[in-house]
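Annotators were shown the component list below and the corresponding predicted structure, then asked to write short factual statements about the assembly.
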Amino acid sequence: MTEETLKHIKELEDMIRSCSGIGDCREAYMYSVNRIQVCPIYEHSPKFEVYSARGRLRILMSILDRKLDVSKKLAEIFYLCTTCGNCHTICHGTYSDNIDLFVHNFIDHVKVWEAFRADLFEMGLAMPRHLELMNSIKENNNPYFEPHKDRIKWLEGRKFPETAENVFFMGCTEPYRMPELIKKIIKVFDKCGIDYTIVHPNEVCCGSIALRIGDINTVKELAKKNIEAFKKAGAKRILIHCAGCFKTIKQNYPEILGEELPFEVVHVTEYLEQLLKEGKIKLNKKIEDKVTYHDPCHIGRASNIYDPPRNLIKSIPDLEFIEFERNRENAWCCGAGGGMKSAFPEKSVEIATDRIKEAEKIGVNKIVSACPFCEMNLSDATKESGSNIKVIDIFDLLDESLD
Amino acid sequence: MNLYAQLEDIVGPDYVSNEDFVLESYAHGITGVGTKRPAIVVIPESAQEISEILKVANKKKMNVIPRGGGAGLLEGVLPLVSGGIIIDMTRMNNVIDFNENTMTVTVECGITWGKLNSFLMERGYYTGTLGPGSGMSAVVGGGLSHNTVGGGGAAKYGAVTRHCVGLEVVLPNGQILTLGSSASKYIKEPFSKWGLGPDYLGLFLGDQGIHGVKTKATLLVYPRPKYRAYKTFSIRRRGDKLWPEIILELRKKGDLGLYDVFYFPELIMQALQGLLIVKDIVVFKSIKERDPKGRAVMFYTMEAETQEALEANQKIVDEIFLNKKGITAFGPEIEDGNIAKWHYEMNGHWQVYHGFWGVMGEKSVPQTGEHHIPVHQYPDLMKKFEKWESENSELLNKVRAMSGVGSSLLCDHTTVEVDSGLTIYNIPEYHEINDKLWRSYLNMIVESGGMPYMAGMRFSRALIDVSAFSDEFYSFMKTIKDTLDPNHILSKGKYYFE
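Structure shown to annotators:
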């Protein structure tokens, strides 16, 4: 190991050495704020320290101090993380706007995990399945080994204007794996009279997977291509549904490129909530059902978008909404993020099954989410556990309720 | 059969590891000072498994350190020397029995105070004292070993050990022993530790883990009162003198239902309010808005069974505070500066100490010297702290370390816990001096009459370093240790039992 091979964590050394070692990131229960557990990986592990954020920060400290070498086995442990950010929420997090503890400001855990993965990737220690996905992104502009031209196959020939006020960023998962969902999204856009376009064939994978795996150079290239495409379309605003794409473009692009984006990046639930508040759309049709909302980590904990999806759901007549016991910043991750679904699919579903059991406990029929990864993984868990709970997207509800 | 294979046989292959990175994750204390790597980590799920592990360790004369949440600040779970077995207790984290008739709860000792109290609070109860300040992460076994206190309820309920009426321990020779009323085969529900003879259970309370491995504990539980009050005060001056005066006045009024009483001296308040080193973070924003100078703060939380009792007690307590010159109260809500409400109602009792971490900016961590003293000694103790600081200023400056008092809180009768210590930078080049300063600081506290409660490796050795014990006492202590643990395998090095 050299300074060069550890350059990404070296940059975050102050964060790593700021760890207090208290270990609330290992397990925390707080009755008053509905905090129940922290780390989905730790809870589904034999419970050695290395499966908790504290243990991992300790290991990074030892690596920086040259007391420990990086190995393939160690790398695997660091890839066994959904990067859900629950460890950051609990780390000296007070749940009060009036009380702000130092260390919470000093450590950005997800940044540290991703930085170390960048080092691991450069050392050639990424997970083999991740490398396959990266090859597909480089060859096809998507991680699904699908031809780039098929990104708009679901549109069945529909044409879009060259320019528009809004660009709808499709992402990869919905066009290639969930065409019915993306059809519903644009159907809702059309019902709402939104001025938008798509930027095919210039749209490429957002790079979320590359970033979570640690392939920073690829993310940079993808970011530049997408930004260029957005500029070309004259967009003032990029509308995104996929939670992973949203976080990557809104938060990670400016960080990675070191520049502000010349347009707004808005989650579709934020945009539609605004239209609802302004009275421009109405959710009139009744839906008689009992649902809960699952906060995707990328738009919840990472982006602080909690109320817009809830406000939309709660505006639907007759729809009964019940919160998960663990909700908002305490929400339990679905288990799919951070490259987990591709590298550790069984563990991913195990974690998602926790969420299904929680939904059964509160007596809902459906889990609503706003992330294709959460939806897929939670659905897999319902199949695996034989649950009758249905997992749907918020756009399933919006389409049904809008005139 | 080698050690690894023997342990694998006992706990199963998933729960034993000697991977270098696994071992390294157990080798750190809070500060990075003196890290040592164990030889093997094992995560059992029953007393029987622990018994087998200890038998193997005894045969091989291997050092064993039981480890709970790993949240202790005095290196209670750090290997003193390289090698040895760490028994990670965190798989043993279940509530075994909740008995509303005896008002007790029996738990596996690897359960956290947070998990246990969430379970109890859902049912209208709590453990009274809610464990240590790190109660979200710290476990019951660690709390009982360290006589822990401070995570809520210290003024009303004292240390957690007071509430332990039953214990199952595994002795270093592997024998599983039941203590307290359940030592009688005719007593089916544990309810008291007295009556069958001497307090042998007490041998294992506050023992710093040197006598046995705690596997099961029965604790008294209490109904959580419905009526609570909280108030936070700004102290214009003379906080160090007013603190003992107020505490003694409060105590002399009898039982006022005080759950916690805290004091934050001026210097720490200034540090927390962005007035000293870290300027861009204000810890208590609503206090800063009303008191930009960063004055000292005191607060109390109080419980009662009726609104009338609450109001009557609050009147008495408020008068004691507000009759002192220069003391004013903040408003009732957290946004008015009443951090006491956060402390009680939002689990701030498990976070209030977290404010002292990072007080000198990134990489700054505490080397604690927290201890107990009778409250009237507080002003004198402050003078001793100042003297130590001046005598050690050169070394302190060399590593940019700071010493002082974070908070003090009422524990039990007239005792206060003084959260004093050092804040140091976790930088490898500083570790040697940091270590030296820490030793000297702890020695000074012991010599000043401070009473450690969570001794860990650090304070237990400081007690011996400054010859705090008489020869007779230390010999008595050693006799007991030798009897229970003739090979000195358990928590090797504490009190210099090697």
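Statements collected:
1. Chain A has a mean pLDDT of 96.
2. Chain A has three domains: 7-125, 129-275, 282-401.
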